[in-house]
Amino acid sequence: MTRRFWRRNGATGWALTAPATLAVIGFLLVPIGAVIAGTFMDPRGVFAPYMSYFNSGFRTTVLFRTLQIAALTTVISLIFGFMTAYVVLRAPGKLKSLLIVAAVFPLLTGVVVRAFAWLIILGRNGILNQTLLALGITSEPLEMLYTQGAVIIGMVYLFVPLMVLSLVGVLENIPKDVLQASSSLGASPLATFWQVLLPLAVPGLIVGAVLVFTGSFTAYATPQLLGGERQTVLATLLHQRAMVSFDWVGASTIAAIMTVITITIVLAMSHIARRINPMAT
Amino acid sequence: MTQPLDINAVSAHYGTTKVLEDLSLSVQAGELVSLLGASGCGKTTTLRLIAGFLSPTSGSITLGGRDLTRLPTHKRDIGLVFQNYALFPHLTVLENVAFGLKQRGIAPAERRKRALAMLERVGLAALADRAPGALSGGQKQRVALARALVIEPPLLMFDEPLSNLDAKLRVDMRVEIRQLQRANGTTSVYVTHDQEEAFSISDRVAIMNAGRLMQFDRPEVLYRRPANTFVARFVGFENIIPFKVTAREGDRVTAETAGMALRLPQSAYGTIPDTFLLATRPDGLVVSTDPAAEGLPATLGLRTYLGRAYQYQCETPAGHLIANGSLTAPLESGTAVKLVPAPEQCTILAAEGAR
Amino acid sequence: MSDRPHPILIGVAALVYFFLMVPLVIVVGAALSDTTYLTFPPQGLSLRWFENIFAISAFRRTIVTSLQIAFLGTLIALLIGIPAAYALNRFRVELPRWLGTLFVLPILVPEIVFGFALLKSLTVGAGVPVFVALLIGHTLLVLPYVVRVISASLASFDFSIEEAAISLGSAPVKTFFTIVLPNVRAGVIAAFILAFITSLNDVSVSLFLTGPGISTLPIQILAHVEQFFDPTVASVSVLLMFLTVAVMAVVERTLGLTFLAK
């Protein structure tokens, strides 16, 4: 009887990865590459689409608004996510799994559903206004929708569960005995937090922050529903340019700007996170 | 500086399982006491209770008369050396050692001086600015030791500190630990599952099993005079034979097991109760080919070579026994012999009801 | 651990969970409302808005499309993703590192840009039918999840078991199906569920790839919300949530939910 063993060589490996590799190259890298390359082939000049983008006051406002919304969302999610993750981690067994499930659930609920919920809450006749009016806190319904605040609330709602889950993982990876060593050496819980826990969590915090920043930087449904035209962001502008104005060059330029910013941030921050990770060696 | 530790009737639970039952143990000032036992015996639980990572369900722990029981860990002032070193990966070696001094509000210059001096003592001053991740296991252990010692705690505790090191380094480090502990005269509690390690460095050893203290004494006593069958088996008394006394004539006590009579000189064994267990190591049973010898009749089975002796698996009416025989005259399997107890290598244990 | 977090921290965490749960409760309440406008607490309970979902043909059609796309897309992603994940682990030494990174790329690239790029090159550029383009988009959208989850469970698989089976005379391909796959079953199930839910809820990729007559449920919901503000959307949302709960219950039964948190 002849036995044919898997030959441990690259050829088999390459063959097995080939379909997925070709799919990613053919349907992701090439199309996106074509979009970006296209922006440099404008008859008006190589950088013409970018010049006209940054010459438009409206469009630069949109870019900075998008960055601002993403940054605020990240900071708020980071602060609340960290505190919550800390509590989740310390919760007794049963409660802990319940809290994790409660964080996973919204994550698995669609973005449209979650944005829609805030539409009901923040609307002119929404629950919040009804409550405020009933309590006599205001006499007129407040205009809460289509503001930057509404978009940020919706985004934080979108990303806090992600942050909590990723930070629970980060905190769980900090060896318990290191924290115990800290308190055995006389560090109060507060000192242990600032001098040991937080420094060790920073690389994980960066990874979580990047996740939230890029997610909120490119989100479409939430700013569309809660921000409307008054709070146009890059994603909604991209859609509007392509599908309403049929301005393909303009849309491609926005796509290129979004891609470059996202990938730059991801690469730079994960590089930093790796470099300052004390647990790497 | 150096203070006695008292554990008074402490019990502890993990959920509904009882992990420690009514443990009382006193460690004298300056003494090194080992807690020895297999995993799950309660030794680590005891250490965690003293450190304050766990709370006892009842009982109290005092250090130098100060009640620690309700005190949070960071106020207990205990130096702790962890099994996995637990060095702070984001701090340098020097910062690791200075950490406890910083918590005590000591000025930066002074804590740097003291931390460096301590690193000097453990021979690591040259590595002060390294990251702990770049150190070898033995070096990490020295840093952990320096970090615990530099705060000059009234109590020092070790949680299996050498179990991650290789055999040679383990022996070197335990000598080093003992020397540092002696020099400082710090009261110490040392948790280990390694009998040799415990016996070699301790003033006294507490042998634990299933959450209870089995025997607490000097290593020499534990090794030669175990107090019960658990400790006897633990320290290598592989043969434990139940006897009933049938006659006493002066110094001669006749005892019987499985229908075989054996005459024992009472003076050589101390008091012999009416029912007792005779416990010996394989060395304590002399293999004799003289049919007239005063011993238990046995048939030799498998012979193995130990280097200093031959060891025989023996079948006797009293069950399976293990004896060592001389290197000069190896005996074949199947030989009928007598196994003669050597009094100085045997100990008499009280018969235990359930056995 | 004997030290509990500071009461203020516990308070903050409680507020965060309140903030997470309340909107979902409100959506459920709105869906059960008897009124023609959105309100909470519901005034009179009824299931009429659930019936309305199926009365509106656009919802009926998009639900079917969404399920088809999610199912087929996930299936194709598993078909190409499992061999890739296997090869990445089995031939870790032989294959270059960047190959692993390649399969994570669809997560790094903004989804909306990806959708736009596919619109330009497939639908407009190559005249690919809308359904096919949508399927391709969703397959690539979920591929990173498939590769990552299955890689994670293969990482803890002891490949010497596979070698043992082969040395005992089992053919390599048969060994994969009888030895390797059963041992990473949990990973495959988790990958399927994660991919399915991701695809079902996707907006950004589908946004550009839906065309006349063919749309997905989330896109249809989005369009509906912008035109009408009635509880139908809440009912569809609840329907989607129940689907999620059902799927999560299955996961909980088979693997435990902490698995998904990774």
TrEMBL record, chain A:
It is a multi-pass membrane protein. Gene3D superfamilies: MetI-like (1.10.3720.10). The keyword Membrane applies. GO terms for cellular component: plasma membrane. Residues 63-267 form the ABC transmembrane type-1 domain. One of its GO terms (biological process) is transmembrane transport. It holds the Pfam family BPD_transp_1. The keyword Membrane applies. InterPro entries: MetI-like, MetI-like_sf. This is Putative spermidine/putrescine transport system permease protein.
Automatic annotation (TrEMBL), chain B:
Keywords: ATP-binding, Nucleotide-binding, Transport. One of its GO terms (cellular component) is ATP-binding cassette (ABC) transporter complex. Residues 5-235 form the ABC transporter domain. GO terms for biological process: quaternary ammonium group transport. It holds the Pfam family TOBE_2. One of its GO terms (molecular function) is ATP binding. Coiled coil: none annotated. SUPFAM superfamilies: MOP-like, P-loop containing nucleoside triphosphate hydrolases. Belongs to the ABC transporter superfamily. This is Putative spermidine/putrescine transport system ATP-binding protein.
TrEMBL record, chain C:
The chain crosses the membrane at residues 7-32, 67-86, 98-119, 125-147, 176-197, 203-225, 232-251. PROSITE patterns: ABC_TM1. GO terms for biological process: transmembrane transport. GO terms for cellular component: plasma membrane. It comes from the Bacteria. It is found in: Cell inner membrane; Cell membrane. It is a multi-pass membrane protein. CDD domains: TM_PBP2. Keywords: Cell inner membrane, Cell membrane, Membrane, Transmembrane, Transmembrane helix, Transport. Belongs to the binding-protein-dependent transport system permease family. This is Putative spermidine/putrescine transport system permease protein. It comes from Microvirga flocculans.
